[in-house]
Amino acid sequence: MSQSTTQNQTSLPLHRPLKLDRHKTHHSITIRRSPSEVYEFWRNFENLPRFLKDVIDIQVLSPTRSRWKIKLKSGLTAEWEAIITDDEEGKQIAWESLADAEVETNGVVQFLKAPAHRGTIVVLSMNYEVPGGKLTEWSTFFTGEDPDTLTQINLKRLKAYLETGEFPTVEGQSSGRREEEKPRITH
């Protein structure tokens, strides 16, 4: 059974156009889990910091409202509140940041049944405005922390987590080279 939770009790169509269009990102990935499993995991916002890189906290304020906090490697931090504008159980969740938010964003995540019983196609479409203007925008792009790159990384992390229970990483691991093989810096 589908439930819709919105401010005006109307349901948004799948693949709805997004209002803010400063920057757009649209990516998808197939996960070997049922749409209802993936939806349930995502809908519990306390799960999101497990796989959303740079999201350090999400406070659930009500069934449709949450406060988000991110911290990028560059040290940039941002907080904002968002509201769910559409929630169709097992199918999609749409959101938007509240007026005057530090981060302006809206988007929709859809959970589509993959063909041949191969799980779920997760489609994430998002519009965003990077805080801090062009300089911040360029620095996040060059460090791989821009929203488009993070969307791709986060979908891969979600897939890894739901399929294996962990994330593949080389962070903190040695390079595997012996001391004498490491490049030497000379002046």
Provide a descriptive summary of the structure in words.
Helix content is 22%, strand content 32%. It contains 4 helices and 7 strands. It is α+β, with helices and mostly antiparallel strands. It has one domain: START domain (Alpha-D-Glucose-1,6-Bisphosphate, Chain A, domain 4, 2-Layer Sandwich), CATH 3.30.530. The chain is globular and about 60 Å long. Strands 1-7-6-5-4-3-2 form a 7-stranded antiparallel sheet, covered by helices on one side.
Keywords:
single chain, 187 residues, alpha+beta, Alpha-D-Glucose-1,6-Bisphosphate, Chain A, domain 4, 7-stranded antiparallel β-sheet, 4 helices, 7 strands, 32% strand, disordered N terminus
- Which structural class fits the helix and strand makeup? alpha+beta
Per CATH, the class reads Alpha Beta
- Number of domains as seen in the coordinates: 1
Quickly count the helices.
4
Q: Report the average pLDDT across residues.
A: 78
Helix content: 10-25%
Largest sheet: 7 strands, antiparallel
Radius of gyration: 19 Å
| CATH topology-level fold name | Alpha-D-Glucose-1,6-Bisphosphate, Chain A, domain 4
Unreliable stretches, pLDDT < 50, 5 or more residues? Answer: 1-21
User: CATH H-level name... which superfamily?
Assistant: START domain
